[in-house]
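Appendix C reproduces, verbatim, an entry submitted by the partner laboratory led by Prof. M.T., so that reviewers can inspect both the input and the predicted structure.
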Amino acid sequence: MAAFPVPADFAPAPDAATRARWREAERAVRPSRLAALRERMTAEHVGAYFGVKREHMRWLTGFTLAEGEDRVAGQSGQFLVGPDDVVVLTDSRYTIQARREAPDAAVDEIGYDLPGAWPRLVGHTGARRVAVEAAAVPHAQWLRLAEAAPEIELVAVDGWLESLRAEKTPDEVERIAAACAVADRALAALLPEIRPGVTEHDLAMRLEWLMRTGGAEALAFDVACLAGPEAALPHGSPGDRPVLANEVLLFDFGAQVEGYRSDMTRTLFVGEPRARDLEIYELVAHAQQAAIDAIRASVTGTRGRGGRLIGGRAADAAARDVIAAAGHGEHFGHGTGHGIGLATHELPRLTYVVADDSLPSPTVFSVEPGVYLEGETGVRIEDLVHLDVANDTVELLTRFPREVIALPA
């Protein structure tokens, strides 16, 4: 069993100079991101690209919206990329912010009537065909835009920017690693407070506080804290259930640092682990390591012998086969992993439902197999992996120990 980690085991929160360096690096790389999008636009014969997803706004322009704020921001932050410029749309609530955060973009205060401004906006680009993030644009809005400028063809697109964002720059990886360290420190600080009788809700709130006061500007997602049989809910929510002795306690949580996120799961033991729970834990740990080993072996083969880099389907199979061989295949229903960055779930995907295309590189993704026994127990172990074939790197960004940790009961 692992010794109890303490916060000092992990990297400290980034200082102001580091954060300023990240912001400068982010601004410096935006022209190359726009150039990559325009190359795709040219190849697909569209003259402009209309984007609405908040992570795309930030990645291309610097304009930021908090989690969920896009639901009340109207068209603010949405953007139109033309051949020569990018326009950030706003209403009066966001104009000053957009000018500050997106200084290299044109800011157009259209107010609350996008269809009314649409002919002028598209006319400025000279485009006759406009790519639109169709999965994120409501059907009614699509119809209004089509009616406002019937001579302009709206082209439904999906995944263009997602695939570009899957490859991470060194500065992006640094920010994800910093978010991992915030989460690592927070859980280490929480360990002495975990004891029988404390509720899932109180532990979740305390962990959130430790992240927010330890360097995170926000959570990556709501904290999951699940005790005993509730750990069998892969996306369960904490309640007023107390922690009990000799049962598992599962935490799934992440921090956000300069817009970039972490995601980790640890299943702890409160008191002496039951033989069944310990057996499942060791199985899940074995499955996770099998996936990581398969990825690492693929990188070695790619670098040394010119082989093909492993894909998300094969990486998933490496973990899934271990669990299935132990008779628990039906108890592992979700994918083995997902990309992470400005969004908690993004490309690439490590799962059995994707085409087995090679993983992108450099990139960051989770490896998180689990086994869930309804009404009994659940175990998941999740770490973020940095993959960079050019530098022969398969590195865990999550530093919190993966070995069994049994807390005093």
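Residues 339 and 348 are 5 Å apart (CA to CA). Additional entries are available on request from the coordinating office.
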